[in-house]
Amino acid sequence: MTTTRRVRALLFDLDGTLMDSETQTDEAISLVTARHGIPGFALPHTETRGRTWAHVADTIRTRTGLRLEARKLAAELLECWKEVTVDVKPVPGSPAALRAAAACGLKIGVVSSSPRSVIDAFLGKLGVIDCVDRQARIGADAIRNGKPDPEGFLLGARRLGVEPADTVVFEDSQAGLLAAKAAGMRSVFISC
User: Fold this and answer.
1) Which terminus of the chain, N or C, has fewer Cβ atoms within 10 Å?
2) Which residues are the active-site residues?
């Protein structure tokens, strides 16, 4: 007999789940690779959605032979992405969902492949920064292993003081869903 555990916390991905910022990822990759003499370059979404800029940079270098240091390429990609996401919009309903969850007494965190500074900025744009526990805003700069590794989600649950089995993850990427499963958390797939 299986028992369903009570949900005590929610962990949200950021890009593509709360903010409609995934097409800007593709745009940043195209712009930066063109600057380096590789026009028209694109990566499949399995290599970009839910992935860190370090992963994207390594993948670009492997597929193109670009001889720019991975750390520098990742920084350039992030800066370009920040520029093209200036006017990014929320995923419809995401601010209301966070507010409703907070009103129900659920603990809320954000686990993203973006750095913490982006999490804070986007939560401010959404007008829900007060709904998300400050300690449970887990960016790529807080962990060693990005999604699909469960490290970020496990850290988020630990900082919220809940068991992984009492947590539900909201994700838009295969890497994120695999990370949630590996963490022993239930998950909801978000598709815009």
Assistant:
1) N
2) 13, 15
Concatenated DSSP letters for 24-55?
A: HHHHHHHHHHHHTT-TT----GGGTTT--HHH
User: Within a 10 A sphere around the Cβ of 124, how many other Cβ atoms?
Assistant: 10
Chain position carrying tokens 């869903």: 177
Quick one: tokens of 40? 């028209």
Among 157, 150, 173, 177, smallest CA distance to 47 is for: 173
DSSP state for residue 7 in the 8-state scheme: P
- Model confidence pTM above 0.85: yes
Task: Using DSSP, state whether 78 is helix, strand or coil.
Answer: helix
Rounded distance, CA 4 to CA 87, Å? 41
Task: Say if residue 2's pLDDT is above 80.
Answer: no
Which tokens is 76 given? 């350039």
Give the Cα separation of 167 and 190 in Å (integer): 16
Give the Cα separation of 99 and 120 in Å (integer): 16
As beta bridge partners, residue 10 has 108, 168
DSSP code, position 10: E
* 60 neighbors 80 (Cβ within 8 angstroms): no
Cβ atoms of 12 and 110 within 8 Å: the answer is yes
